[in-house]
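Lecture notes, unit on protein representations.

Consider one protein chain, 486 amino acids long.
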Amino acid sequence: MVRFWRSRMVPALRPRRTRILAATIPALCRAAVVLSVAGAQPVPAQPFDGQRDAQPESATLAIVGGLLIDGHEGPPLPGGIVLVDGDRIVAAGSRESLAVPDGAEVIDATGMTVMPGLIDVHVHLDILGHSDYQHWHGSHRPNYAAIMEVSARQLLMSGVTTAVDLAGNPDALIATQQAIESGAIPGPRVVASMGWITHWTDEQVQRHHRRTHTVNVRTVDEARAAARTAIAQGAGILKVHTGLTEAQLRAIAAEADRNGLRVTGHVGNRDDLLMRVRSGQDGIEHLSLSAGDSPVIHPDVIQGLVDRRTWVVPTMIQTMAQGLTAEWPDRRDNPRARALTPPGLWSDIRSSLEHPRRFGYFGGGLRVSRFQAMGAKLRQLRDAGVRLLVGTDAGTPLNFHTDATWQEMDLMVGFGFPPMEVLVTATRRNAEYLGLGDELGSLTPGKLADIIVVDGNPLLSMRDLRNVVAVVKDGRVYKRPDAGVR
């Protein structure tokens, strides 16, 4: 039996406002993922050999010839070079100013774009786009860690090198984090909330598909204890759901602040939102869901968000996925998701997507008025100076890990955000939100080498982010232009 243990944190990633699990375990001896689906034989996932598939041939890596977008909002640099030594970026600049060291491994990015790895601050590794949550969690609860391996591969191969899991099963998340950190499986750096904290009735908890992920509290002391438990499990962020009182939220926020963590979560109506930001909730998830179809956010809400410097994660693609699929049914046959999902599991997912109008929780996504209202609200927030982030709720119905991040970014551009601003938000600003701005989010010498190569130019079309042909995380090459998906 392999015994897992963790140090409190990777020393190089000890930020002011977050924790990330350390890679302190030995190489993890894991079999290939096996996922059982009713009526289907167990299907092994694509095997991964950490030494063969991700270890550069030399300690030095050079990415040469691409258009450099460095994450600092300056003009892109054509024909640039990025040099990596070990897990760190050592230089980024022009061909004229830099030379490729002898013996370096070279990735030719001529005609492509080189940029920091994407960061998605809201994903669910335990779900893969299935429409029936009760069926999914009822059938696959024993296989959460195996499902998370599939999700992790999908995210990394799509250019997401850091992901924030909000509300996943703690045991499965710990196993997944350790497997990624040890090199046993490919995946992004995972920051996790280790479930969520809420104040529901017992009946609500029992009915909920995520009841094994839910910590239901009744008192302030229970709320404080729940926060401490999540932190002890290695949480890098805390997530709260509806029903909590102001006193409970303040207790949770105090524990988070004491341990350098942020608190994010859902909101109800306007008064609930204002109470939450007043109580110390740092982030708001799904703001679009709390305001219905109105294209205007109340001035009190705007002022509260600005005054408290609250971060907002709109998750537009989650709200719009159903409506987009009603317009373009082919979205259900996502070739990228299908290629990176075991066939038996994909069959289960695909069969659940035949009737998108029945998805109760996401029913509002069918209304065109909501699309228009979301764009107006996002522009209102931006114009007021509210700090916006890129997060997707990936894994929710029709919201595949392989595509959610670029689709969210494409929606932002469609709603009038400048492409460079969107790219910087999905990299450097997301890193700053996580307290990792000194380590991630830009092609800056000294930072960790999380780099992607895109066949195309996302400044001209954000949809080019579909074409991520190379992925480097912590200086290790997980995907190469000449080798495809690994």
